[in-house]
Amino acid sequence: MKSRLPLKPIITAIVLLWDLQGICKTLQVPAFLVNVPEGHFAAVSEPCKSLAEARKSAIYDLARQVLGSIGGRYDHRFVFDSSGDLKNPQKSMQDNLLRAASGIVLGIEQNIIKSTWQMDQSDRFIFFILVNYPQSLIAKMRNLTLGSKVLASFIGVSENYALIRVTEVNGVSVVLTSADIKICKQNRFAKTISFFIIQVPEAFCENYSVELDPVKVCDSSQTVILRLIEAKPVSDYLLGAKIEHKIHLKGYDEIGRPVNVHLAF
After folding, report:
1. Can you tell me whether residue 31 is helix, strand or coil?
2. Helix %, strand %, coil % of the chain (to 5)
3. In this structure, are 63 and 152 located in the same domain?
4. Is 251 a member of any domain?
5. Does residue 172 sit in the same domain as residue 139?
6. How far is Cα 256 from Cα 129, in angstroms, rounded to an integer?
7. Could you report the per-residue pLDDT of 205-238, keeping only the tens digit for each?
8. What percent of the chain is modeled with pLDDT above 70?
9. What sign results for the dihedral spanned by CA atoms 13, 18, 22, 28?
10. Do both 13 and 117 map to the same domain?
C-alpha cells in the first residue's frame, strides 16, 4: 500500500513557491537607462495602476530633467528658533537650499526613440523611455523660455507711408499682423489764429488701425510699411503743427504668445 504525503506540507510548499515567484519578479533595467547616449535623456516612471499613467509619469520626469538643463533658480532659507526658559533653553535651526525650475519644454513625445514597460511585484506598471534631445533643442527651449525681444526704429516717411525697421534679437520667430496708430497734433499758433480769424483746436489726436501683410522676423530685421492718414502740409504749416505718431505693432510668436512693440516718432 502506497503511503500518501501529508497534505499540509504540500500546501505550505505551494504557497512558499508562489511567494518566491512573486519575490523573484525583479525589474530588468533597460540598457539605455544605464548608459544614456549623449544628446539624450532617459527616464523611469513611478509605479502606476495603468500603463497610460505610467507613460505620462515618465514624460513628466523627462520634462523635469530638460527644465533642469535649461536653468533654474535657487532659494536659500535659514530659520533659527529659540524657545524655553533661561535654565532650559531649546534651540532649533533649519537651513534649506531649494531649487525650482520653470520654462518651456516642447517636442518630448515627438522625439521618443525607445520605450518599454514592466510590472513590479505589486502588479503596477513602470514605464521606461529614451528621448533624443540634443543641445541645439535645449538652446531653442531656453530661447523660448526667455521669449522674443523685438526692437523697432523709424526709418522715414515716403508719401503717406511710414517705414519702420523691426529687429528680433532672441532667436524666437515672430509674426507681426497689425498696427494701432495714434496721431497727435499740437497747433502752436492756435491761440493767435482763434483770436483774430477762426476757432481752431490747440491740440487733437486721431486713432486708427491697419492690417499688415504678415511680417515674419527671427534673429534678423525686416521693414514694415505703415499707411498714414493723408497729411495736410499747408494747414499744418499755417497752424504751426507739431505732429507725433505713436505706433503699436501687434502679432504673436511661434508658440502663440502675443507680441507688442511700441514706437514713437
Report:
1. helix
2. 25, 45, 30
3. no
4. yes
5. no
6. 29
7. 788 899 999 999 999 999 999 888 765 554 554 5
8. 66
9. positive
10. yes
Query: Can you give the residue range of the structural domain that contains 134?
Result: 8-70+99-143
Span 159-177, pLDDT tens digits: 788 899 999 999 999 999 9
Q: Return d(Cα 23, Cα 19) in angstroms, integer.
A: 6
pLDDT at 207: 87
Q: In what order do the strands lie in the sheet with 221-227?
A: 150-158, 161-168, 221-227
29 within some domain? yes
Domain boundary among 143, 174, 201: 143
5 alpha-carbon distance from chain centroid: 71
**CA atoms of 103 and 33, how far apart (whole Å):** 25
Assess contact for 132 and 39: CB atoms under 8 A: yes
Q: Is residue 76 part of a domain?
A: no
Question: pLDDT grade, residue 98 (50/70/90)?
Answer: very low
176 with 152: CB under 8 angstroms? no
State the average pLDDT for the chain: 78
Task: Measure the CA–CA gap between 42 and 35, rounded to whole angstroms.
Answer: 9
CB–CB of 111/129 below 8 Å? no
Residue 44 has pLDDT above 70, yes or no: yes
Could you tell me which residues are beta bridge partners of residue 67? none
C-alpha cell at 104: 518651456
In this structure, are 137 and 152 located in the same domain?
Answer: no
**What is the C-alpha separation between 225 and 221, in angstroms, rounded?**
13
- 80 occurs within a structural domain: no
Last residue of a domain, one of 120, 143, 166: 143
> What is the spatial distance between Cα 124 and Cα 116, in angstroms, rounded to a whole number?
14
Distance of CA 232 to the CA centre of its chain: 47
